[in-house]
Amino acid sequence: MAVMDAFDLTHSALPNGTMLLEASAGTGKTFAITGIVLRLLLERRVTKLSEILVVTFTVAATQELKTRIRRALRDGMAACERGSHDSDRFLDSLAKAHGRMGAKLLRQALQQSDEMSVATIHSFCKRVLDEAAFSSATPFHIEFAADDLPIRADASCDAVRLIVQSHDAVCAAVAKREGLLPDKVLQLHKKFSQHAGTKLLPESGPLDEALTDLHTTLKELRQVAAAGGLPCDELCKIKWGAAARKKPWGCSFEAMVPQLLARLLDDAVPDLAWIEAFSTSSLEESLIGKTRPSLNHPFFELCQQATDRAEQAGHSLRRELLLATGARIARDKARTDSMSFDDLLRRVDEALADAGRRTRLLSSLRARYRVAVIDEFQDTDPAQYRVFATS
Fold first, then answer.
1. What is the pLDDT of residues 350-359, one digit of tens each?
2. Taking the complete model, does pTM exceed 0.70, yes or no?
3. In the chain, which residue ranges form alpha helices assigned H by DSSP?
C-alpha cells in the first residue's frame, strides 16, 4: 500500500495497487476524488467511466458525489477544448496536457454518466450479490429489510422464553441476577454479531452442567440452614456500610435473620441476591466497624460458592441465549429470503473468504471495475475493511 507524505492532485503519480490518502473534513476530499476520476480517464487508466467504482458513506453523499463528478467532467471538457483554464490550476494543467483529445474523452465520459458507479458500501454489496448470484451463492430473489429490528426482537424474546422456561426456578433466578431479559439479550446480540468469530469471555461450559452445580450448592446451603447452622453470633456482629451495594433488604437486622432463614429454605424460588450478600467477598467489601464477624464458617463459604456458581451459570446462560437468538434470526431470514444492511456486508465478506467462491467473485468484480475510489467507510469494522482490501 502506497502512503504519500503529501499528495498533489496535479503532479503526484497515481500508482498501481492501493494508495491511501488521509484527509480531515473540510480539506477538499471531494475535490480530490473528482480530480482523480478525471485523471483516471485522461491518463487512460480506464476506458470508460463505469469502470470506476466510487464508494462513500451515506446515500446523500452519493448524490453529491455524482453531481460533483458530472460538474468536473463538464468543466474539464470545456478547459480541454479551450486549451487552458484561467482560474483553476488543476484544470489548466489537464487542458495543457491533454487538449482536444482530452475533451473528447471527457465528453464520452459525460455521455456515460448515467452508468456511473457511485454507491454506499451497503448498496455496493447488494449490487455484488444481485449481479453475481452464482459466484456469491446467493438466492436470486432477496427481500431487502432496511430495518430488521422486528426479526431480532422476536428472536431474543423466543430465546429467553424457550431456554429459561424450559428449565426451572434456579435458571430463572440466574436470568434475573444477570438481567437477561429480552431487551438486554437483543442489545448483547447486536454487539456480539457485529464481528464474525467473536469469542465470549470468560469461557463457559454447558448450561445444564452449570445449573446442576448451582443446585448442588444450594441444596448444601439449605441443609446447613435447616440444621440450625446459621452463624447467628457472627451475623449479629455484621455492620454494613451505608454504601453497601449488595444489601438487598430494607428491614432491620433483627427482622432480616428470620427472613434470611425463610428464603434459604424456600426450594421453589432461590433468592440469589440475599445469598450473594452473605458471600465472603461481598461481606469483606461491605462491612464497617472494628468488631467484625469471622467469615471462616460453612454458611459464608457456601454463600460464596453459590454466588460463584450462579455467576458461572450466568455466563453459560448468556452464551445459550445469544446462540439461540442468532439461530432464530438466521432461520427467519432464510425462510423469508430477506437480508439487512449487516447481512449484505457479511454475505460478501463470507463469499470473498470462501476458497470455492472467492476466485469467481473476484473475477466478476475485476472484470467490471478496474479502479475503486473509497471516500468514507467504517475502517474500524473489520468486515468492511476486508471487503475493500480483498477486492
1. 888 888 888 8
2. no
3. 29-42, 59-82, 89-111, 121-131, 133-136, 149-165, 169-178, 182-192, 207-226, 232-236, 253-264, 272-277, 280-286, 298-336, 341-353, 355-368, 382-390
